[in-house]
Fold these 2 entries.
Entry 1:
Amino acid sequence: MKSLQELENLKLQSQKLVNLRLGDRQNSPHKHHVLICQGTGCVSAKATVIEEAFHEHLAKHNLTEDVVVARTGCFGICEAGPVVIVYPEGAFYSHVTPEDAERITKNHLVEGNVVTDLLLEGSSVGDKIIPINEIPFYKKQKRVSLALCGLINPENILEYIAFDGYKALAKAVLEMSPKAIIDEIKESGIRGRGGGGFSTGRKWEFTMNTQADQKYIVCNGDEGDPGAFMDRSILEGDPHAIIEAMAIAGYAVGANQGYVYVRAEYPIATNRLQIAIDQAKDFGLLGKNIFESDFNFDLEIRLGAGAFVCGEETALLNSIEGQRGMPNPRPPYPAVEGLWGKPTVINNVETFSNIPQIILNGAKWFSDMGTEGSNGTKVFALGGKIKNTGLIEVPMGITLREVIFDVGGGIPNGKKFKAVQTGGPSGGCLTEEHLDTPIDFDNLTRLGAMMGSGGMIVMDEDNCMVDIAKFFLEFTVDESCGKCAPCRVGTKKMLNILNRITSGTSEMAELDRLEELAKNIKISSLCGLGQTAPNPVLSTLKNFREEYEAHVKDNKCPSGVCKDLLNYFILDTCIGCTLCTRHCPVNAITGEKKEVHHIDTKTCIKCNVCVEKCKFNAIEVR
Amino acid sequence: MVKEVICKDRLAQLETVMDEHKGKKGCLMPILHESQKIFGCIPLGVQKVIADATGIPMAEIYGVVTFYSHFSIEPKGDFVIGVCMGTACYVKNAGKILDDFVKQANVKVGETSEDGKFTLEATRCIGACGLAPVITINEDVYGRLKADAQEVADILAKY
């Protein structure tokens, strides 16, 4: 790639590849595009088999010339997966099976009749298809980071170029000075999307202003928060955006080498990113003398190896260097002294994914979205007890209620909303009363939760909040690297107290000790992991103290989760079929045939077999 | 059951990998990743070979291998069962599924069954939250489970 003109020409040629998806039937050599979501969720549900089935049936009907089958990144609505969208109609097929490929091919692609019974709920009225951005799930969304996820084939650089791909890099390298780029980024107000929320522009500025013979750009794709998968989806669906953004960062701060650190658990993302890097090199968009300037930039992937703490920036850098992934005290910050002691910009995947569009559309375009202090959009991973599990992107400032009930579709099975956990093991639980708070960095922190990477797990009345706090603490105890005592010893001590609470051997004074310990760990730990590990406990103690008290004072788990506090009872509706007696592994159930049985709670080991076997719902757990 | 882990073929593969990475900055992690793939684990014997070839002290290599959960020193079973314990799965009863596997496959969490058939792991979030609760057995994925004992029995029967 030599000039902007050459890139523009390539764009014009490539547009015919994607025109159909934008509704332009005239300028497309094909009749239909079949887009198959191949994010991890849909691949797990056999999306690759579906792709093969389409190829097979298209060949049967001699349609291979007229119909393009493209694999794309995540559409976001994982709950409805595997998802297939057929253009130009924009027919949104959900829960597709390999067998459905035959019907879609025959009815829709050959005969032109949309298979209405396979359409996503809410995506059509009668036979009329609703445009995708008006489907309830997408209506309140604003897709910037995810704009091309599900629209392009991430394994084809031309489709990225057709949507102005690498134009921002061209603009940056050919028309802008490094300082102008950093000013633009600063002015946009973008803050790091990985958890910290630090100004990206200022980070770059520190690195630019530090003199060194070598500088590095690192992309943090070590997405460890359970229930958060936006970074993976961006890498899977739009890997070129990350490559482009890192190259722009490299030009701005004067770095010629970048590393993308990705979790080893993300094989599809790693694979697509590698394909994208290779293509970018082939097109001269990575390597030496990019756009015939004197700017050189190269990129390598480094795999994580299953350590949550490596999401902390200094730990991640140590891991790239080939050491144990343990954090260093800061300062010095990586921006001044990072990888191999050299100034290093380290940003999260989602942060990078915004950069090309800020350069193309300007700082004002970005800062017009969101709230004061939290500009732009944020991607959230909705999970747990929510109807539309999946990935969403919304403007900052939207309320939790809109996210959970409008976009997420509310709580399934008629259950009642109880809490939402944001920010993973570093975050906190928010309740009903917080539902109308606008979501942004500062509001969430103020409420004792955290934006974190954007995991959002919804809980209903069946979830015990003490158990959830314990779950997160088990996670942090396991993942603590052991370098500093407050985190290594303190979190373990907290877990011991929680174990006593959930087993009914605690006392009220311990709740205060738990709180005190938590606060001390927060202020004295070395890195972000320890400093935020007590958050789930503190926020549940604050918002659900009565549940803790019920465990301690009454030896009861109100949600019926904590096993040690439960007892099994047989109700009068028992007809005496003796099925439970025969299956009880410890012979705790007695009773005559056709009479109400009885469980000896002292012998009972609470294995739940009787409940599973009983056909009359006659066993109660309380 | 003792499995032959270190053999000539595999050592030759390791040699090729090391030739490719040796001398590069931060070469240890990529070499360990490849070793884990080649041998299925990274036992002391392999660590020694890497130490000799790269000049990195074995103590340091051992430190790195034991730090990351992706690397193991012991070989794993023929079928590695991974029960996702990410939050989305956990709130949908993944704990119960894990218990059922412990009982029915007769193997403790993090260990391998005596016949070397199954290794049971409580894995970190695999990101298939839309399929929660989800488990993996080697490359196979089972999602949207109902968390009852019979379902686990049916899955195990396939292996």
Entry 2:
Amino acid sequence: MSLNFPTEIPLQAYLVLAAVLFCTGVWGLINSRNAVRVLMSIELMLNGVNINLMAFSSYLDGQLIRGQVFAIFVITVAAAEAAVGLAILLSLYRNRETVDMERFNLLRW
Amino acid sequence: MTIASIAQLISFAALSITLVLGALGVVLLPNIVYSAFLLGGVFLSVAGLYLLLNASFVAAAQVLVYVGAVNVLILFAIMLVNKKETLAAIPGLALRRVLSGAVCAGLFALLLRVALTTHWALPGPTPLGDDATIRIGEHLFSDYLLPFELASVLLLMAMIGAIVLARRDVLSSDVITGQPADQGLIEKERIPLLLDKAALESPLLEKTP
């Protein structure tokens, strides 16, 4: 065979993919002007972490899949976070009539 | 190289390309509705990666919770707050983007170095495969029982908190008598509390009719 591909996907491929997803989320979290997009960036970061947990669970802890249990808890907390975050956003929008993050500066010196 | 491993490689490549492009689209696209739909695509491809990692239960949970609940919730929020507004220009925005991009690139380099230079204890024990769901159930009802129950309390608190935060306080009619409520209260409720006067008078924030 001329090409020398690995017969199985290495663990590092998943880790690099999760790192890409996490860093994209961090960049979006810092740079978004729209508050909804900030929440979406947080979801991206949580998914990056979950990919890490699942990869370690499958490659290093195949019998006692503790990473999968942790990923389920992370999904639960992410759902609760999304609900409360969007409710805060709605309440904020009702009182300030904007979703621009730069204008939510009521407590800034 | 068997046909199974070729299929695995091809699906991993397709899923990761979808994932990376979708994530970039979520962050960079100007239209937030497109971002929300691309976020659904990202969640689906993450679920596909879970399937590649022998975790069918978590993949199903990912599709149900993320695509079914979180993404729909985000779409609803976009519909509720979707007012066209011109964002005020900020001085030094380009510099800020470049700086934060550099910080994120540094973080990525750090993560990359950790992932590629650590000697992982490979190969680990053989993965469970289809029995993973049974093992998750055993975990949730034995050694992870307390976090499992606490998660239910957390979800209840989040539900109540979301309702309390998002509802309007004044009803249009009195609950007990059925008479129309005091109109002054309703009007007062509709006035935004925290609008700053100076920002209202600036031309950037004029409301669209």
